[in-house]
Design a protein that fits this description.
The protein is α/β, with parallel strands linked by helices. The chain contains 22 helices and ten strands. The relative contact order is 0.08.
């Protein structure tokens, strides 16, 4: 697979709607039941209106006999006169319809709620599953805040529309169709008047849609930025506090909220104009119908019962037709949200597993890069013609300036990405021929920035093998020099760690990460600058742990400190994505080149070294900048006007 830039998939609106309704497949039995209950409920409601109309006509023909005056109303009602018997029959029939409608309504609401929750479960499961499986290219293209928004808000918009489109639309069709049929049986002209507003409504809704969708798209994009700002601020709260930039962060969030408010207000104005027009058309239709009904009554073509039936029918029809505005609102939101969900669920993989892929062949862990070239963008390669071989069980140190491609190189080994040219072999097998699960099960990563989950210490160490025994977890912790400080925690291995392990020191987090890698029992170990951000004492403890872990394992070490790499069996120096030097520490010290500059810079303070100190004049400028910046912040608290310093 070539290293092409990442593109999100697109889809037409018609295909998008078909795809969204595909979410009903897992709940089709519940959906069918909901539709059947809706049909029965609608039929019972329309039948009740018809019976009521007939009852009014019959009641007009009833008369009270003499026995009413003798026995009173109760005696007459339970008497055996034809009028009393007819009235009792009507009352019982209406009571029966009321009970049936109530029962069906209860069953409808219960079924609809269950349908909705099951649909949310299946969509969320699909989204979360995809987020776990999609490649790094997708996560590079979409921010964390945007993904959270898509997995929550967009999912709800799609769910609401699917429910509305299926059940509420079916209810509208059944109610309007049923009552129109009922009116046709009494007066065709009245039925035609009831249908008159539909073409006008359809035209206005289509015209409105062309403006609504772009407005909703802009709202969701601004909402994504809001969530991203909050997510970043919470994750980086220590940086914000350390630099005293709370006002700056509040200002950034307020600015985005103002933009969000402006776009929401535009949407509100759009829908505020839409709903009154729909209701005005409905009201005009209602008045026209009653005018026609009045004329027909005067001509004797409609009875009192017919007028009652007309009022109930038109109330139900207009009430349902006015819901078109609600469905249209949900439709516009769902089309935009559905497109964003589609981009997640149909995101192309960064790496593709072959249909005939097989588990990685067993072996000791020999690694070979054969003329590998890679670029996140094919027009700009990050790595050029990387070619080297590492015997099993050896330690390889990868050094070089920032941005030279060190982390990218080891990421290719785990198939986070695929090279555009060349191939990578582990124990003689092209890693593209291996299943991803079997490949990554044989590679353990210890990152510079350790991520620990909000779970117990034991669960974090046994992350790759959750069912491993307590003995294996403790053995891994001892090997990583972590057992002692774990025992000092309140509940030892059962202690719940804070989010990202913030309750631990940097060195403790790093040793837990090493223990996690040991517990995975990998064939290949990758240490990405694992000691860069710790103090010398902690670094010494971590290096001692790493030395124990590297025994009989092929190990890649990314590091800047000479003390970390000098004992490696092979040192690879990367510059501008190319291997500029390769050999042991002692061999490279004898050659002119970047590696010797690094060593001289760290050991002897040679200005040619990579990590040379800052010049005195630059340090003085930095101190002056910090002093003036602090003065600006203090002035802001007292509302004094002070110009921002320039570095």
């Amino acid at each position: 697979m070539s290293s092409t830039p990442y593109h999100l998939p697109s889809i037409s609106t018609v295909r998008l709607l078909r795809w969204m309704f595909g979410f009903t497949r897992p709940v089709k039995s519940l959906l069918l039941l909901a539709c059947v209950l809706l049909v029965l409920w609608t039929g019972a409601e329309i039948a009740a209106v018809r019976v009521t109309a007939e009852a009014v006509n019959q009641i007009k023909s009833f008369h009270v006999s003499d026995d009413y005056h003798a026995g009173g109303m109760i005696g007459w009602l339970f008497g055996d006169t034809p009028s009393a018997i007819g009235l009792r029959r009507i009352v019982l029939m209406l009571a029966g319809f009321t009970a049936v409608i109530g029962l069906l309504g209860f069953l409808r609401e219960t079924t609809n709620a269950k349908l909705s929750m099951n649909m949310v479960f299946y969509i969320r499961e699909a989204v979360y599953d995809k987020l776990q499986r999609v490649g790094f290219g997708f996560h590079d293209a979409i921010s964390t805040g945007e993904l959270i928004n898509r997995a929550l808000s967009d999912l709800q918009n799609v769910r609401l529309f699917i429910n509305s489109a299926v059940l509420i639309t079916l209810e509208i069709v059944l109610i309007v169709g049923g009552y129109i049929a009922l009116l046709l049986s009494r007066s065709p002209w009245v039925a035609l008047l009831a249908l008159a507003p539909l073409p006008l409504w359809t035209w206005y809704i289509l015209r409105f849609s062309r403006k609504a969708q772009p407005a909703l798209q802009s709202i969701m994009e601004t909402g994504d930025r809001n969530v991203s700002i909050i997510t970043e601020n919470i994750a980086g709260v220590h940086v914000v506090k350390a630099f005293g930039t709370e006002r700056q962060e509040i200002s950034r969030y307020d600015s985005n909220c103002d933009e969000f408010f402006t776009r929401v207000m535009y949407r509100i104005r759009l829908f505020a104009n839409f709903t009154p027009v729909i209701r005005s058309i409905a009201a005009a239709s209602h008045l026209t119908l009653f005018l026609a009904a009045g004329i027909l009554i005067l001509k004797g073509r409609l009875t009192a019962g017919d007028v009652l039936m007309l009022g109930a029918a038109m109330g139900a029809i207009l009430n349902r037709l006015q819901q078109i505005s609600v469905i249209n609102d949900q439709y516009q939101s769902a089309v935009v949200s559905g497109r964003r969900l589609y981009e997640v669920l149909h995101a192309p993989p960064t790496v593709i597993q072959k249909p005939d892929a097989r588990p990685l062949d067993p072996g000791p862990g020999a690694v070979r890069f054969e003329h590998v070239t890679f670029g996140y963008d094919p027009s700009k390669a990050v790595l050029h013609d990387i070619d080297f071989e590492v015997p099993a069980g050896k330690v390889v140190a990868v050094v070089g300036p920032t941005g030279s491609g060190k982390t990218t190189l080891v990421g290719l080994l785990a198939r986070f990405y695929d090279p555009g040219q060349g191939r990578i072999l582990i124990d003689g097998m092209d890693i593209r021929d291996a299943t991803l699960d079997s490949l990554r099960a044989q590679i353990a990563y210890v990152f510079q920035e350790t991520y620990l989950f909000s779970d117990t210490v034991e669960a974090n160490i046994a992350y790759s093998h959750p069912r491993t025994s307590n003995g294996n977890v403790e053995a891994a912790a001892r090997l990583a020099q972590a057992h002692e400080f774990i025992n000092d925690l309140p509940k030892g291995y059962d202690t719940i760690l804070g989010e990202r392990g913030t309750t631990l020191s940097g060195g403790q987090r790093q040793r837990l990460a090493i223990a996690r890698a040991i517990c995975a029992d990998p064939r290949i170990l990758i240490l990405d600058d694992a000691t860069a951000a710790v103090d010398p004492e902690t670094e010494h403890a971590i290096r001692r742990a790493i030395r124990l872990v590297m025994v009989d394992r092929t190990t890649f070490v990314i590091a800047h400190r000479v003390s970390t790499v000098k004992n490696a069996d092979l040192v690879i120096v990367l510059e501008n994505g190319r291997i500029s030097q390769m050999g042991t520490h002692d061999e490279l010290l004898l050659r002119e080149g970047h590696y010797r500059q690094i060593v001289n810079g760290q050991l002897y303070g040679d200005p040619g070294g990579e990590e040379q100190g800052l010049s005195l004049s630059h340090m003085n400028r930095m101190r002056e900048f910090v002093r003036r910046r602090r003065h600006v912040l203090e002035a802001a608290d007292t509302e004094e006007v002070v110009n921002e310093p320039e570095l």
